[in-house]
Write a structure and sequence with these properties.
Number of domains of chain B: 2
Largest interface: A-B, 39 and 44 residues
Shape of chain A: flat
Radius of gyration of chain B: 17 Å
Strand content of chain A: under 5%
CATH topology of the largest domain in chain B: Arc Repressor Mutant, subunit A
Order of helices and strands of chain A: HHHHHHH
Oligomer: heterodimer
Amino acid sequence: MRCFSIEELYAYLDGDLPHDGVHSIEAHALACAECRALLEDRRAFLEAAESLPDIEIPASFAATIMARLETVPAPHPRRLPVWTWFATASAGSAAFLATLAGIALLSGQNLWEYLVHLQHGFINYLQGAATAVIHLVKYIQIFLKIAGQFAMALADVFKRASAFLTPPVQAAFAVSAILILAMGFVLWRRRTHSLENDHDE
Amino acid sequence: MIIHRYQQPVVNYIGRMVREREMALDFSQEIFLKVYASLRSYRPQYKFSTWLFKIASNFMIDHWRKKKLPTTSIDQSFDYEDDGRRLQVADEAPSVGRQYELKEIRGRIEAGLDRLPPAFRELFVWRHVDGLSYEEMAEIKKLPLGTVKNRVFQAKEMLRRLLGETP
């Protein structure tokens, strides 16, 4: 049986040989002192390499990275290439037009008249949607303004109260204020509800 | 947590590349920050460790370029040593196992790594210190599997020869 190359011996030690190869090397190493010595030599070398000590890492290593991460801006969202947007838009438009043509054909309508009719409907829809959005934005603005003023007033009350009240008393005060507000709201709702019922009767 | 899971292999790799613990820790931190900054470019079809080591390897290449240190291209052939002798055929070095104790072999390997070209050192450390598979290393370096196996083999034999030379 032939002697094996160093590369084959390493492949054996690496577990990178097929079953037949493993068997051949083991059988040969039993009979050949020179190959056995080479094998043991490389085995000792690799065992030493694979048991090199880890480089010591301080316990604060991960925490330091996490602290630095807080100062690093968040990763930007990945942008899709322009051609992706173009292809998506084209496919969407083609599908939309095909659907319209299909509907027009199935309903027996003239495609052109059908498109004109759709366009009018679409413009009306856009006008309605735009009006609704404008109203919604106005309501949100008013709500934010009132909520902001209310929060400022509340913060001012707490600020003044904190000058002479201990933290537990402040907490009790805050909880009481919230409870009173909640109860007031519930009572107001019940009264409004009963008035509506009287009016209906 | 990503950092806890991968900090030891990354520090082991960078430490063996720069041969200075404090610098290795600093570089490893930078690598984890880069990993975080590039998280959106990670594709789940690849192993996370492959992607991470690719970033670490690129970081080291940039470092050597900035320092203008002599680097060795992975594409360069290493069939011959500096004096022109064929690297692998003859085996005249004395037996490592018989000559030295395990602790001493480790010390000599650490010293020998200094003298190994970086491109070979990198593959050797990945394979035999961090335990990466050949397939993973081929993916990281974008090299054919056979080429990676051959480079690792050459790295091992170079290093083993250096054991007898290092004090």
